[in-house]
Design a protein that fits this description.
- The complex is a heterodimer of chains A (about 160) and B (about 600).
- Chain A has ten helices and no strands.
- Chain A has about 160 residues and is mainly α.
- In chain A, helix 8 packs across helix 10.
- Chain A starts with 12 loop residues before the first helix and ends with a helix.
- Chain B has about 600 residues and is α/β, with parallel strands linked by helices.
- Chain B has four domains: about 1-125, no CATH class; about 135-295, 3-Layer(bba) Sandwich (FAD/NAD(P)-binding domain), CATH 3.50.50; about 380-435, Alpha-Beta Plaits (2-Layer Sandwich); about 440-590, Rossmann fold (3-Layer(aba) Sandwich), CATH 3.40.50.
- Chain B is built from 16 helices and 27 strands.
- In chain B, the strands form ten sheets. A five-stranded parallel β-sheet of chain B has the order 10-17-11-12-13. In chain B, strands 25-24-26-27 form a four-stranded parallel β-sheet, with helices on both faces. Chain B has a three-stranded antiparallel β-sheet with strand order 1-2-7.
- In chain B, helix 5 packs across helix 6 (about 240-250).
- Chain B is globular and about 90 Å long.
- The chains are: A mainly alpha (about 160), B alpha/beta (about 600).
- At the A-B interface, helix 2 of A face strand 14 and strand 15 of B.
């Protein structure tokens, strides 16, 4: 159990989420915990808990959420959103929180390096000559080793 | 129920379906289709010899398919009338070559295959709607796996299992292996309090039903491991909290948190994943059986009955009472009352209370032999009526009859008429007089109000029940609002004829406000829908003629909204100041042409 410093909460955080598409119904959470009980990530990693994130957001613990690693653990399987009896779009809210984190300048180094790879190579798994040689052996056409289009998208 | 069946002045129609209802308070004609029972219900002694002889085996609906019955059967042990019934669709037929075994078995000769469905018309004075409820079907809630695993039961199925007269004689056996269950979990709010699946309302009875079930289990099996997964236990009501406390004291685990997934173990037990709110931990509970506490939903027949009787439903689909506090058992249509879950989910005590109230309301209405109605009813001038049928279309009470094809002029049933005046407002030929609120009376008020310093006046039409009462409330609350407001009271905003508005503008009114009850709160069922339509129509006409449509306003103000009334009047005053004398003169000129 950690202490919550009420002076450091942002009372407008929940409102900011409500004003964005997908976040409208965050207030409706009545803490039934169906989301956490449905979550495949929560089943193996206790630091990720969708219900707790929603409650934290409603308390206004903006910095704790946006600076955290855990919001990036969501696998976007939508099980929680599908089962939420109150119609809270939990997965969409996770995406919203990630967007807000990036806007606030918070991004875990892993995510940052993934983004850099996509920016440079156009894909998350870079293709080099080694891969193309293997592809040629299997009779497959070669793949481009870089992608200018994606770079253009980022600029 | 047995007393009802025996009472000399109560006629019970079982196996019956309402086909149509006509008439009005004191004079309802109810057409009933009485299905053939194929057994003489007065002669049958329910000895059961016929069922023993019957070779057809079917799932027993009363035991929810957990046991079987024959094609000729008694629906359940205490069924009234105490007579068997034959399901013709399941029966093999009475041809001796095929079957006909029950005919031979019945010594008294009660079985008659030549019975046929009968159409009966009953003439009644009042109607009590007590059509009950259906339960939510949990199949769509995949996380609880009701359709996948046999050991997941509904609360109704569990009720049959633990019942001494049920298929297992009261022993709680697992459906898969018929072995006594050692641990049972209950999931609350299945199909209740959900914005997406089932109803978004609380079904009222499931918490206490589960508490009762846990206590029964603890009585029979003190060592059984019982867990209840819940969001909130709603144990309000006399003696309920005590029962809940007793359940907890007897060792039932109440775990706050709803399951997310249910998986079957190799031994056919169930693994239920729940996050316990108290500990914040994700827990996996291994249980022999899981019971889903189903929510209630409106009975399937609700919609059809609503159309036949001209009643209203609330957004949840249950019948809507005339007033939630002051007329909780009355329908908006006179002579119709509600009892039990037809009006909303409720437990036995509340149902009995409401049923007693409904009976007393019906007696109060009927015992005099005649009813007293308000003199505020409408009246048709037959010579002026062109039989267009508009009045019959708009009447919320179906009090106006008119034959458009045979050109029989409209007539108003004064017993059914509640006096909203919508018919008089909509009649294109001025063939309807609304007593006490005649065109002449209202137009005189309009002209008198606008007689002096016309361009400073704000003309307001306010309905008796909401807006006029709202104005009263503003006064009682000593709120300030512009003194140049001139209120004209009508029973309903539906009474405000287009003509009143045009006459007002023709007489030089700068602005006009039509106000009534909020949509859905109209004291004349839905008469204010017609107000809304009419005002929209006038707005269009005004725009076409080059008059600023803003000068006619429509606002819904309730009797409790005194502050809002004052605010609306301030708004109207601002609007009035924006209307120049030239604009008024132009409008008057336009309307005179």
């Amino acid at each position: 159990m950690t202490e919550i410093d009420v002076n450091k909460t942002d009372p407008y955080f929940a409102r900011d989420i409500m004003n964005q598409p997908g976040g409208e119904k965050i207030w409706a959470c009545f803490s039934c915990r169906t989301c956490t009980a449905s979550c495949p990530i929560a089943a193996i990693n206790h630091t990720f808990n969708p219900a707790r994130i929603i409650r934290m957001a409603l308390y206004g613990l903006k910095q704790d959420i946006l600076r955290s690693d855990f919001i990036w653990f969501c696998s976007n399987c939508y099980a929680c959103q599908e089962r939420c009896p109150q119609g809270v779009r939990i997965t969409d809210i996770m995406t919203l929180l990630k967007n807000m984190a990036i806007q606030g300048g918070y991004m875990p180094s892993g995510i940052k390096s993934q983004m850099d790879i996509i920016k440079g190579e156009g894909r998350i798994y870079p293709i080099d000559d080694f891969d193309n040689k293997k592809r040629a052996k299997a009779g497959l056409p070669p793949l481009p080793t870089s992608c200018e289009v994606v770079k253009a998208l980022f600029s | 129920m047995t007393d009802v069946g025996r009472h000399p002045r109560i006629t019970l129609h079982t196996l019956s379906e309402i086909k149509d209802v006509n008439g009005y308070v004191g004079n309802f004609d109810v057409s009933i289709l009485k299905r053939a029972r194929y057994v003489d219900e007065n002669e049958c002694t329910a000895c059961g010899d016929c069922a023993e002889a019957c070779p057809v085996i079917r799932p027993d609906e009363f035991n929810l398919g957990l046991s079987s019955r024959r094609a000729i059967f008694s629906p359940f042990p205490q069924a009234v009338p105490s007579a068997y019934v034959l399901n013709a669709n399941e029966c093999l037929g009475h041809n001796p070559v095929v079957c006909g075994k029950c005919l031979e078995a019945c010594d008294k000769g009660c079985i008659d295959f030549h019975m046929s469905d009968k159409e009966i018309v009953e003439h009644v004075g009042s109607i009590v709607v007590a059509t009950g409820f259906d339960v939510y079907d949990p199949t769509e809630l995949d996380e609880y796996a009701y359709s996948r695993f046999e050991n997941v039961l509904t609360s109704l199925e569990f009720e049959r299992l633990i019942n001494a007269g049920g298929p297992t004689g009261g022993e709680v056996l697992r459906p898969t292996d018929r072995q006594p269950a050692r641990s049972i979990g209950f999931v609350q709010c299945v199909g209740s309090r959900s914005a997406k699946k089932g109803g978004n309302y609380c079904s009222n009875i499931c918490c206490m039903n589960t508490v009762k079930s846990t206590l029964m289990l603890k009585e029979h099996y003190p060592d059984m491991d019982i867990k209840v997964f819940y969001i909130d236990i709603r144990a309000f009501g006399k003696g309920f909290e005590e029962l809940y406390t007793r359940s907890r004291r007897s060792g039932v685990h109440y775990i706050r948190g709803l399951p997310g997934t249910v998986e079957e173990d190799p031994d056919k037990g169930l693994s239920v994943a729940v996050e316990n709110t108290a500990t914040g931990n994700l827990e996996i509970h291994h249980l022999d059986m899981l019971v889903l506490a189903l929510g209630l939903k409106p009975a399937a027949s609700t919609q059809r009955l609503q159309e036949m009787l001209g009643l209203q439903l609330n957004p949840d689909g249950f019948f809507l009472e005339a007033h939630p506090k002051l007329q909780p058992v009355d329908a908006a249509t006179r002579g119709i009352y509600y009892a039990g879950c037809a009006e909303g989910p409720k437990d036995i005590k509340e149902s009995v209370t409401q049923a007693s109230a409904a009976a007393a309301r019906a007696i109060r209405l009927m015992h005099k032999g005649e009813i007293t109605t308000e003199a505020i009813t409408s009246m048709v001038i037959e010579e002026a009526c062109k039989c267009c049928g508009k009045c019959a279309e708009v009447c919320p009470y179906n009090a106006v009859t008119v034959d458009v094809k045979k050109k029989i002029p409209a007539s108003v049933n004064t017993a059914a008429c509640a006096g909203c005046g919508t018919c008089a407002a909509e009649c294109p030929f001025d063939a309807i007089i609304m007593n006490h609120f005649t065109d002449g009376q209202i137009l005189n008020q309009v002209h008198t109000a606008l007689e002096e310093s016309t361009q400073e006046k704000i003309l307001v039409f306010a309905c008796n029940w909401c807006s006029y009462a709202g104005a009263d409330y503003a006064g009682v609350s000593r709120l300030q609002y512009p003194p140049n407001v001139r209120l004209i009271r009508t029973m309903c905003s539906g009474r405000v004829d287009e003509k009143f508005i045009w006459d007002g503008f023709r007489a030089g009114a700068p602005v006009i406000l039509v106000s009534g009850c909020h949509i859905g709160d109209c004291h004349y069922i839905d008469a204010n829908h017609w107000t809304e339509k009419r005002v929209k129509k006038v707005h269009k006409k005004m725009a076409k003629m080059g008059i600023r449509p803003e000068r006619l306003q429509l606002e819904w103000i309730s009797a409790a909204e005194g502050v809002r009334f004052a605010e609306v009047m301030d708004g109207m005053e601002k609007l009035r100041q924006s209307v120049t004398p030239e604009e008024i003169a132009e409008t008057v000129q336009l309307l005179k042409e």
